[in-house]
Specification:
It is a single chain. Helix content is 16%, strand content 42%. By secondary structure, it is of the alpha+beta class. A five-stranded antiparallel beta sheet has the order 7-6-5-4-8, with helices on one face. The chain has a three-stranded antiparallel beta sheet with strand order 1-2-3, with no helix packed on it. A hairpin with a 5-residue loop joins strand 6 and strand 7. It is globular, with a radius of gyration of 13 Å.
Length: 86
């Protein structure tokens, strides 16, 4: 799943599998909300569990692209795998 980001923070375009995802106002509000990764049922998810992240884009079939706050790592995960920080 290769995603590329073009443009600056005001005019950002994300391409996932050569399909554009426009960076709309709704997406900006989602990115401001903090979440944490809650799943840890395999080795990859255990490495991500408990880390804080932001949602960058929502896709089909219940998927989202998140960016971890600590190091900027981006992952495509299930929407069910994150929880809001209260």
């Amino acid at each position: 799943m290769g995603c590329q980001v073009f443009g600056g923070p005001e005019n950002q375009l994300i391409l996932c599998n050569s399909r554009p995802i426009n960076w709309t106002e709704k997406a900006r509000r989602m990115a401001e909300q903090m979440y944490y990764f809650a799943w840890g049922n395999n080795s990859k998810r255990k490495m991500m569990k408990g880390r804080f992240c932001k949602v960058l884009a929502r896709g089909k079939k219940n998927s989202i692209m998140i960016e971890f706050v600590d190091n900027g790592q981006r992952e495509i995960v299930s929407r069910n795998s994150i929880r809001k920080v209260k």
